[in-house]
Amino acid sequence: MSLDDLYQEIILDHYRSPRNRSGDLDPHDVHVHHSNPLCGDELDLRLRVQDGTVGAVAYDGDGCSISMASASAMTEAVAGRKLSDADDLAEAFRLMMHGEGVKREDDLLDGVAFQGVAKFPVRVKCALLGWMALKDALQTYSEGEAEHRVTYD
Amino acid sequence: MSLDDLYQEIILDHYRSPRNRSGDLDPHDVHVHHSNPLCGDELDLRLRVQDGTVGAVAYDGDGCSISMASASAMTEAVAGRKLSDADDLAEAFRLMMHGEGVKREDDLLDGVAFQGVAKFPVRVKCALLGWMALKDALQTYSEGEAEHRVTYD
Amino acid sequence: MLDVERVRKDFPLLERQVHGRRLVYLDSAATSQKPQSVLDAMTRYYETTNANVHRGVHALAEEATEAYESARNTVARFVCADPRGVVFTKNATEAFNLLAYSWARTRLGEGDILLSTQMEHHANLVPWQLVQPETGFDLRYVPMTAGGLLDLDEFDAVVATGRVKLFTVTAMSNVVGTINPVRELAAKVRAANRDAVVVVDGAQSVPHLGTDMVDLDADFLCFSGHKMLGPTGIGVLAGRPDLLEAMPPFLGGGEMISNVTLEGTTYNEIPYKFEAGTPPIAEAVGLAAAVDYLSGLGMDAVRAHEVELLQTCIPALEAVEGVTVHGPTDPARRGAAVSFAIEGLHPHDIGTIMDREGVAVRAGHHCAKPLVRTLGSAATTRASFYLYNTTDEIQALVDAIEATKNFFKV
Amino acid sequence: MLDVERVRKDFPLLERQVHGRRLVYLDSAATSQKPQSVLDAMTRYYETTNANVHRGVHALAEEATEAYESARNTVARFVCADPRGVVFTKNATEAFNLLAYSWARTRLGEGDILLSTQMEHHANLVPWQLVQPETGFDLRYVPMTAGGLLDLDEFDAVVATGRVKLFTVTAMSNVVGTINPVRELAAKVRAANRDAVVVVDGAQSVPHLGTDMVDLDADFLCFSGHKMLGPTGIGVLAGRPDLLEAMPPFLGGGEMISNVTLEGTTYNEIPYKFEAGTPPIAEAVGLAAAVDYLSGLGMDAVRAHEVELLQTCIPALEAVEGVTVHGPTDPARRGAAVSFAIEGLHPHDIGTIMDREGVAVRAGHHCAKPLVRTLGSAATTRASFYLYNTTDEIQALVDAIEATKNFFKV
Ligand SMILES: Cc1ncc(COP(=O)(O)O)c(C=O)c1O
Ligand SMILES: Cc1ncc(COP(=O)(O)O)c(C=O)c1O
Question: Is the ipTM, as predicted for this complex, more than 0.90?
Answer without folding.
Answer: yes
